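Consider one such protein record:
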Amino acid sequence: MARPLGAPRVTARPRWRATAAVVVLNLAAAAAVVTLVGPLGDPGAVVRAGAAMPSAIDAGEWWRLLTCVWLHFDILHLTINLMCVWLVGRWVESLYGSAAMLAMFGTAGLVGSLTSHLAGGVGLGAGVSGAVFGLIGAAAAELLARRPTRGGAGSSLGMRLLVVALAQLLVDLALPAVDRWAHAGGFLVGVLLGLAWSPHRPPGRARRAVTVALASALAAATAAAAALVIATPVTTTYDRGGLGRHVVGGVAVTAPARWRVDGDEVGDAELSVWLAVAREPVGTAAEHEAYLADEPSRTRARGLGRSSPATPRIELPAGWGGHERTAVVDSDVGDELRYRVLTAIGPAPGSPGQGLRVSLYLPETLVAPLARRLAATLASLQVVTPPPAP
């Protein structure tokens, strides 16, 4: 007959210091982003803060796989994830130990973001949910496979997991682009570590040394990743991959090679930078002014909301005229996200009698660092096909 498993080693007092440290560090990261970069929901802000940007990771910015775990897209995203960390993390820490909990959290977060990246993910990524699912996996492994027996621990844990599952369902409904690949990767590694480090097994110095070493290595790697985020300006990230030639509406544009054409626009979905180009016969000055004056209605049609005049920051090519506006978008949780809108009209190089109308849209947080590069993009516009027949 097989020998029955022993009772799990749960400390007399629940451990929570490592869990609290994770919560505090996430809050500190959110405060730093809002204070130093911009709103949590701003694509430019989260990219500058170290979000998982697939093209940048492919180009060598591996550290984003670590730093993205500590970033969030809005207050709701942050609040629900940290509530889940607090509910499950304390139980996992009490059962497995502080070092093991931190090792599980860090490993699940890293594996989750790596799984998402390799699987194609959801584009720009951030959030601690992959690590949360790692803790859920470790807890589920202990609950289902080992069935903890200490004074109702199983029912208490089951209730916590139910609450966390409902909270994550709320996140899934609130954020359509939820990264389920990160969830799956984090959950799987959590289950494996939970089984390997089960508290039913006899304790040993070797296992303790492994958990401490792994937690320390992940902490050091995360600190190094944060330092690399600080040391890498967004212009370096923007330039990775080099330049390419894109053709939209018969007009060639020299811009980052990762930009993609979508109808009459070309741009970068990861950074939310889009350039709309239209070629039309040269009109009168009055027609030009009317077109420029109508930009607020086109801005609203894109869902950018109210707008107001802004001080020009992006230099226009010689012979062009235009203006810049700041558009405000109210997010679902009440944050105000600001976008810069540049509208301009100029001659069509290579096509006499034709003119170009362009509208450039980008997060306000990217205007200052990318102004010169975007000016060069506008100066590169060149007609490459004959004008359409009248």
